[in-house]
Amino acid sequence: MERAYKLAAIAVRQRLKEQYSERLKILDKISKDRVAVYSGSYDRAEDVLNCLKIPYTLNPDPQKISNKIIFVNCSNSCDNKSIENFKKSVDRGSWLVSSDWTLRNVIEPSFPNTVRWNSKSTRDEVISVEPSLNSLWSDVVVLGADPQWWLENSSYPIEVLDTEKVRIEAASHDLLARYNAPVVAVSFNWGKGYVFHVISHFWVKRSRSFTARHAQPCTDFLKVGMKLSEVGIEEVLERAKIKPETINFAQIQSAATATELVAQLCINFCINLANKQLIST
After folding, report:
1. What gap in Å lies between CA 253 and CA 226, rounded to an integer?
2. Which of 103, 155, 191, 226 is close enough to 151 for a disulfide, judged by CB 3.0 to 4.6 Å?
3. Which residues, 6+ apart, have CB-to-CB distance to 214 below 8 Å?
4. Which percentage of the chain shows pLDDT scores above 70?
5. Is pLDDT at 206 greater than 70 in this prediction?
6. Higher-scoring residue by pLDDT: 253, 207
7. How does residue 40 score in pLDDT terms, banded at 50, 70 and 90?
């Protein structure tokens, strides 16, 4: 999957270049003082950022993280002082992006009555995902081949408490059938800021070929999923130094789903911040 993530990051940038050039300019201007990452016990959002060549500050002083997009990796614990500072930062306008166990360790105590862990735990498995209309993933959906999301052993299913405040970004029939909790990702505004949480991890460790199409070469997804031009596909493969048959549709789809999400969150944060600064002047 490391090779798939390398390819996915190059493909995401190529997609922006061909289809949303202004958003690529925003991505390229992001400085490390705008992105904070907090190490976790399991997830590695920083590795996705590294593949995308987005600079960041690792584990900065939690008391000095205002006006940032903050990635908090899945971890089995978080100290009370950090939790308090994360909440204060979101109150002031930061965006908090978190994964898996942070649902119970950070999100629940910081943002009560929004979402919570439903007290069940998943198996190590791969599920299909149905992104919501106009979600951050909707641009890279292939009809008949749902995006995949890998669940860590003991991932925390998400229960939505406030259906008016919380937006479901993606759901899964697999999660509904197995754990009575269909939600894959949620988002909501809080104070002057924003929270985005996803079950399991941004750094996916494996995928699964559910159908014959999932076993096809990665170029199939680059063409129909990311809608890259033929010239763009050739450029992506050349830059990644990867032969199409060495990575399949399912692998690039899983890596691209996570990579696209991280890239779009960073871009949207910068747009939101710029709009607020424009209004204040």
Report:
1. 9
2. 155
3. 145, 148, 207, 208, 248, 249, 250, 253
4. 94
5. no
6. 253
7. confident
Query: Helices marked H in the chain — which ranges?
Result: 2-19, 21-28, 45-52, 80-92, 102, 108-110, 173-179, 218-224, 230-240, 249-280
- Say what the pLDDT of residue 199 is: 92
Average pLDDT, the chain: 89
> Dihedral through CA 167, CA 169, CA 174, CA 175, nearest 10?
-50
Distance CA 193, CA 91 (A): 6
SS3 for 111? coil
Q: Nearest-5° angle of CA 71, CA 221, CA 154? A: 40
What is the rounded distance in angstroms from the CA atom of residue 158 to the CA atom of residue 64?
Answer: 29
Neighbours of 189 (CB within 10 A): 12
**Other CB atoms within 10 Å distance of the CB of residue 27:** 20
**Closest alpha carbon to 262 in 49, 72, 90, 44:** 49
By residue count, the chain amounts to 281
- 226 contacts 15 by C-beta, under 8 angstroms: yes
Query: Mean pLDDT, to the nearest integer, of 7-20?
Result: 95
Number of domains in the chain: 1
Question: What's the token pair of residue 89?
Answer: 């930062």
Give the pLDDT confidence of 122-171 residue by residue, as tens digits. 988 888 888 887 777 776 565 555 677 888 788 999 999 999 999 999 89
CATH code (residue 122)? 3.40.50.880
Structural domain range at position 274? 2-280
Neighbours of 61 (CB within 10 A): 10
User: For the whole model, what pTM was predicted?
Assistant: 0.92
Q: Which residues 6+ apart lie within 8 Å of 40 measured at CB?
A: 72, 73, 74, 75, 99, 102
Token pair, residue 112, equals: 């009560």
